[in-house]
Amino acid sequence: MCGIVGYIGKRQAAPILLDGLAKLEYRGYDSAGICVFSEDGFSVAKTKGRLSALSELTNGGAELCGCLGIGHTRWATHGAPSDKNSHPHVSSNGKICVVHNGIIENYLVLKEYLQSVGKAFESDTDTEVIANLFEYYYELEGDLIRAVKRAIEKMTGSYALGILCMDCPGRMLAVKKNSPLIFGFGEGENFIASDVPAILKYTRKVVYLNDGDMVDFNADGAVFYNALGERIEKVPEHIAWEMSAAEKGGYPHFMMKEIHEQPKALRDTVSPRIKNGRVVLDDLQLSAEYLRGVRRIYIVACGSAYYVGCLGKYILEKTCRIPVEPILASEFRYAQPVLGDDTLVIIISQSGETADTLAALREANTLGARTLAIVNVVGSAISKAAHDVIYTWAGPEIAVATTKAYSTQLSVIYLLALYIGDLLGTLSQEEYQTILKALTELPEKMTAMLTENYLEHIETLAGELYEHHDVFFIGRNLDSATCLEGSLKLKEIAYVHSEAYAAGELKHGPISLIEDNTLVIAVAGVPELFDKTMSNVKEVKARGANVLGLTTEDLEADIRKTVDRCLLVPKTHPLLQPSLNVVPLQIFSYYMALARGCDVDKPRNLAKSVTVE
Ligand code: F6R
């Protein structure tokens, strides 16, 4: 979704803004713009398309002189991607300039009112309404802070805003609600941004703003206010990770880099939580007594994180014998779920900012459930709103399509399965130790898979299959959940229409879609269901399907008897097999996307952090 950067200091702002926006490209965007504020007033440059177009338009920023500015990458919500709808937006009288991430739900009512009092609009956006609302209240109040406070009281929806006022040179305001925003402390310069990579080159001292927070700052200092308008102190956090974590490091795409980072991400997430042969979740406040009383678990998330939840159902039910229901956050929030103090709601999110997931979490809190978030981004809104947090230490994930965050989320499910299963006595000590051993061996097994030969093999398969535009993934039990993820990957980055079905379900309808040469990807990683899945493969083969099978190395000879091509993975404990099975599916989608000429890291229409409903 949209990205914001703001700078005040002694350096030229425009190149810093362009550089910062480039670090936010991963969020997904369709247009971009910057405004530099100098003694000559606001200089605005904006354009539809990639940042390279904006950079060309401004000669790398050199055309816009001044040491204060705001920049924006836009992911269109109100109005098509175009120059006029790009941010920044300037108010009618030219005095207020804003960049905005989020959605103002009541923008039409506000716009109509503002038009009735003579404010003029050039764009279709809700953001121009904000600029004019600020102008309206500024004219009444004569004070920028008071004007912004009165205006945001009238706005419903979500926003992170960078605000400049022609009457306030050398100064910027920023305010947020339900969209991410950080403040960065520099030496004689200060920053705002939607995410850390945008400013990491300049500072490691950042504050994550809370909903309702406002910051009023110049080059030398900042004053923070909370939602009640009270002055508050903010202690900066130190960002420990290296800039290289947000760069490609020699890989052609972030996605490939992040696929390769999975073993390390798994190790970083799992190892610190194993002490003396036991899973120790120091991060949890959940008492043993509470867990013993849990009668039902919901796993709430969106997209791939939800598919981790689908795996979580099989894993946690098997190990803990508690009913588990995975549910999409966008459904959960309006479903009036039956929750109580014996319900544990597990929320999964890489970004920690996904609007639906955050809203679902708040709903669960309100309804009296205990909430536990599995989150990657430290200090994110979800990490703050949940009762308990377990961080996935995947490091920054830049590619829009998740890989390493997905893998670490799954590893946390295994940790929870061991932890709760042990506590409840539903896992035998022998099984506990076997799973724990397999979990600690996963990174090694994954590393062993990621060889050049393995990648080349999958690239060749993609080279043979990339012209298929309808693909069906089938699998049973855990594999059916892996299929959902494999299918999503193929859709989002290779733009291939694909569906995922529980293999046994195919004959209840979808099999009518199988015809000569339809590509079916059959995941057969659950040993006791291998033969059953192969029976389903035979059914689709009998109708002409071209089948790519995926199974463990020990079953190579068996699977080759039935399928046309195969992908193999090392064998691990059956419950952990999905962790390895997903890897070739990620790589397959990657090479399919390349073969089809797609932009792997920035797929069309998608955003990394979905901060609107
Ligand atoms: C798919 C993907 C998305 C996210 C989903 C949730 O590759 O990345 O489906 O999983 O948008 O995002 P988070 O985990 O940030 O809440």
Protein described:
The chain is α/β, with parallel strands linked by helices and 613 residues long. It has 3 domains: 3-240, Glutamine Phosphoribosylpyrophosphate, subunit 1, domain 1; 248-446, Glucose-6-phosphate isomerase like protein, domain 1 (Rossmann fold); 452-595, 3-Layer(aba) Sandwich (Rossmann fold), CATH 3.40.50.10490. An 8-stranded antiparallel β-sheet has the order 3-2-4-1-10-9-11-15, covered by helices on one side. It has a 7-stranded antiparallel β-sheet with strand order 5-6-7-8-12-13-14, with helices on one face. The protein has a 5-stranded parallel β-sheet with strand order 19-18-20-21-22, with helices on both faces. The termini are close together. It binds fructose -6-phosphate (F6R). Fructose -6-phosphate binds next to helix 9 and helix 16.
Secondary-structure map with pairings?
Elements lengths: L2 E6 L4 H11 L7 E8 L2 E8 L2 H7 L10 E7 L14 E2 L5 E6 L5 H10 L10 H15 L2 H11 L4 E7 L6 E6 L4 E4 L4 E4 L11 E4 L5 E4 L4 E4 L5 E2 L4 E2 L15 H7 L1 H9 L3 E2 L2 E2 L8 H5 L3 E6 L1 H18 L3 E5 H4 L10 E7 L5 H12 L3 E6 L5 H5 L2 E4 L12 H21 L4 H21 L2 H14 L4 E6 L2 H17 L2 E6 L16 E5 L6 H12 L4 E7 L3 H5 L4 E5 L7 H19 L18
Parallel strand pairs: 18-19, 18-20, 20-21, 21-22, 23-24, 23-25, 25-26, 26-27
Antiparallel strand pairs: 1-4, 1-10, 2-3, 2-4, 5-6, 6-7, 7-8, 8-12, 9-10, 9-11, 11-15, 12-13, 13-14, 16-17
Helix pairs in contact: 3-4, 4-5, 7-13, 7-14, 9-13, 9-16, 13-14, 15-19, 16-19
Fructose -6-phosphate binds next to helix 9 and helix 16.
